[in-house]
Amino acid sequence: MNSKPLSSTRWLARGLLLAGLAIATTGSAEVYKWVDEQGRTHYSDQKPADRAATAMDVQVTSYQFPRIDVNTLYPPDRQTSASRAPVILYSTTWCGYCTKARKYFRRHGIPFREYDVETSSRGKKDYARLNGKGVPIILVGKRRLNGFSEGSFERLYNAP
Predict the structure, then answer these.
(1) CA distance 53 to 31
(2) pTM of this prediction?
């Protein structure tokens, strides 16, 4: 992480998010905080050699995806008349888990609509609205599954 001054709240939030992600990924890391001569607060993963800094205990326990109105992605007039909620798959051509999901849906006769997040303008737009960070993203009605495993999908698909 860069030790240059963070000029706005936006950059500070990004820096803290990156620090939090680093901690979540590695399991442990230290973040240091100090104030320079101009009164600006700095954050870094390295303790400054020329001044005192406070070690911060930062814990990331979970991430909650933002709520979205799924009807904006799959309007009610285009939903299937089946009793189950519609299934939407946001995928790429190169993703192995996307391929597994696609094959699973076809093998089990589960109707689904698929959007490629790299080549489809609709897929790109929806992926951005969903704050996508990876593929596949599977929507079953208003419920969301990131990634794919048969068990996780079955629990989501068969939930009341």
Answers:
(1) 10
(2) 0.51
